[in-house]
Amino acid sequence: MKVVPLFLSSLALASAVACSVKIPKNKTVVTTPTTKAASPIAMPGDATQPEAAPAATATAPSPSAAPSVVKEDSVFRVPVGPALLISPGEGVGPVRFGAKLSTIQRLMEADCTELTEDKGMQWCRYQPHAVDFGLKNDKLVTIHVHGSEREFTPGKGLGVDNAYGVFRGAFLNKAQLGMYPKFVDQGKPLRVQKVEPGRFPTVEKHYYENMVLEYDKLKNGNVVLGGVVLTKPTKPVKSTTAPQKPKTAKKRNPKPLH
Predict the structure, then answer these.
(1) What is the pLDDT of residue 222?
(2) What is the pLDDT of residue 110?
(3) Domain ranges of the chain
(4) Contact 191/207 with Cβ under 8 angstroms?
(5) Rounded to 5 degrees, what angle do the CA atoms 242, 245, 247 make?
(6) How far is CA 151 from the centre of its chain?
(7) What 3-state DSSP class applies to 15?
(8) What is the largest distance, in Å, between two alpha-carbon atoms of the chain?
């Protein structure tokens, strides 16, 4: 008969607890630490063993449930191209009314995304820059700037491949696309027109001299500046961006001393 030592080290005791203890008739009892129990493993021929629970996996939304609006398509867009100051009666940035197609593409530092003709007008459209240039007789006469949630190709719907990018520009007073009407502050409009949404979600237009501001109603219900239409003036306008000549003080003839 073997005598088991009464004093076991902590390491030996832990090993003894973790190991199987053999008992008669080839039966085995296994002790495990008091942690979360592992899933039982089904053995061949053992009908009493429960089936292992499947591992939890994240389910992807179905294509029909995927959002279609621009702001929810998970694509992070950044403004590209030159900075374009919106100047009513003049143009945007270095692109001025009267410019030719070749000049527009050179100043925009890229070719047109799409070059089309519609109702006697030639349109050089830039999707990533969110601006369209309308030419007549190869001279720029109309500029259309776009905000978010506007489709590029009519009728195709919004999505990653058919949405305008981010316009890199603003007005002289820092107003820009996406702002609420009260922050745009371009003066009192000549008239205001309520409209029904069509190709764009525009619900209101504010008319100024040589400019129309389009306010869009977004999917979240907010009404913001969604577009700017600039037209070539019929008469010369005073430049708002040209550097002003410094004023010089008038020379005064000194009074003679008596």
Answers:
(1) 95
(2) 96
(3) 70-178+209-214
(4) yes
(5) 145
(6) 13
(7) helix
(8) 143
pLDDT, tens digit (0-9, with 9 covering 90-100), for 89-131: 999 999 999 999 999 999 999 999 999 999 899 999 999 999 9
Phi/psi region, residue 111 (left: phi>0; alpha: psi -120 to 50; beta: rest), is beta
Paired strand residues for 27: 23
Burial of 71 (0-12, 13-18, 19+ CB in 10 A): middle
With contact defined as beta carbons under 8 Å apart, do 93 and 85 qualify?
Answer: yes
Which is nearest to 141 in space by CA: 116, 123, 126? 123
pTM over 0.70: no
Q: Which residues contact 5 (CB under 8 A, 6 or more apart)?
A: none
List the structure tokens of 122.
């030639």
Q: Answer yes or no: are the C-beta atoms of 225 and 147 closer than 8 Å.
A: yes
For residue 89, which of 225, 232, 251 has the smallest C-alpha distance? 232
Rg (CA), the chain: 36
Sheet arrangement for strand 131-136: 114-118, 121-126, 131-136, 139-146, 223-231, 211-217, 202-208, 191-194
71 vs 117, which has greater pLDDT?
117
Cβ contact 207:192 at 8 Å: yes
